[in-house]
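Listing S7. Sequence submitted for prediction.
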Amino acid sequence: LTSLLPPLLWTARNQAVADYPGFCSIGAVMLRFENAAAVLAKRAGASTYFRDQWEKQYLREHPDQVNWTRGSRWIYEAAEAKQILRDNWRLYLPIHLRGMANTLLGPLHVWSWADSLVERIAARPSATEASAAARPDMPSPPPSPMVGLYGGGPVRSFPLATRILTKAALVFNGLLILLATIGACRCRPWSRPALAAMLGSGLVAWFAAGGPDGTARYRAPFAGVLCLLAGLGVTEVIERLGSARRLVPSAGTRV
């Protein structure tokens, strides 16, 4: 009850100040200008899109909303986005699954690994450049060194480093997932309510992280679950290797 009080108070504050009956508006904004915008871009045959451009287009299509309160507009945006996703769920499903794969296997977008992923990442505009392309009237800030990992900045000049980092991350995350799967089978969470709740919360967080904005940072809410299960997986592997070693006779033992 104590933990519910602050969110309820903040929601009441949002209703009073912004006319929005929700805890945070980012859900409505992301739903309309990331998830739904990705579907609309795909339906139009576009290979990429910029959020700023879709926000400007939205206001052009809804000029009456210029004088609306922020809360009323967020409510409408969320409702419209849900309708777009319902009507185009076949288009959105692969987008959502791709985001889940990126979240689980990041740090980079790894879905199209077979299609020379690293080369395309090295040539992709950075977040800074994308923002500048969407808003040419705004001066571009200097690129952050960390942006280079995602295809811009200093690392772009070193495609070999990008390849090494990407492959290392894929191998590490793949091994982590394999060990976590082994650990989940070892602990049998379906027979233990507490473990089932922990695993279920991790799966829900992973599913929620899908979509066009899915990246490795959204793995944080369930990374602890993965690591705990991977620890059990390591124990299982060590015990099985020990059992197998005891079953194999040594070189000096006569059978």
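Caption to Listing S7: primary sequence and predicted structure tokens for the chain studied. Residues 146 and 153 are 8 Å apart (CA to CA). Residues 110-158 have pLDDT under 50 and may be disordered.
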